[in-house]
Each structure stands twice: as C-alpha cells, then as structure tokens.
Amino acid sequence: MATLLIKLRHTPPDELEEIHALMEANEIDVYETSGGNWGSSLPALWLSRDEQLAEAKVLLKQYEQERFTRIRSEYETLKEEGKARTVLDMARENPVRYIAYLVMIAALVYISVVPFLALSS
C-alpha cells in the first residue's frame, strides 16, 4: 500500500527536483500526484513500498537541514552584498499592487477598530 511521504503544495520546483534526485540516488521508489486541474487534489510524494518509510524520513530530514543551511547562507550573502530583495524593491517592481495591498490593510484595520471606537463614545 502506498504511504504519504511529503505534501508538495507550495513546494518550489528546484526543491522537488532535488527530492526526486535524492530518492532516486538512494533507490527509494516514489511517485508523485498532482493537485489536479483546479488544485483541489493533494499534490504529494508517495512511497511505493511501506518498508522504506523510515529510511526516506531520515533522508528527508537530513536534506531539509542541509537545504535550510544552504538557502540561509545564500540569503545572508545577498544581504551582505546589498542584493537581497526588500519591501521597497517589491514596491518599486509593482507600485499599483503595493498601494492596493496598503489600502486593503487600512480598510481591514478600519473595519476592525471602528466598532470598538463607537462603543467608547
């Protein structure tokens, strides 16, 4: 019977490729299910053989730790070089979206706070 190894929703393509390569290198049989046409299904990576679950989980944990360290060091390098993406950069890239988000946030805060202000007067 197939066993769920990892859910893949919001998994970057490069990470998915690395996980597939890791499993293939260690001869762990996996298959992938997609989210379907409308994204309503579960995109996931499944083990074909249950007896490989413990080994696969250990490999994934090691991989996650290594990836976290690698991505974090890349970010720190970009930050030191002044090339890390900031909120100001995002606002410059798409000012209309940035302003729209600010307006939506202000509206939510207003709707949330006004009833309490009305009670105090």
CATH fold category name of the largest domain: Alpha-Beta Plaits
Give the topology string: H per helix, E per strand.
Answer: EHEEHHH
Mean pLDDT: 94
Q: Rounded to an integer, what's the Rg over CA atoms?
A: 22 Å
Shape: extended
Estimated helix fraction: 55-70%
Distance between the termini: 64 Å
CATH classification class of the largest domain: Alpha Beta
- In spatial order, strands of the major sheet run 1-3-2
When the domains are counted, the total is 2
Would you mind describing this structure in some detail?
This protein is mostly helical and 121 residues long. Helix content is 62%, strand content 11%. The protein is built from four helices and three strands, in the order βαββααα. It has a three-stranded antiparallel sheet, with helices on one face. Helix 3 crosses helix 4. The chain is extended and about 65 Å long. It starts with a strand and ends with a helix.
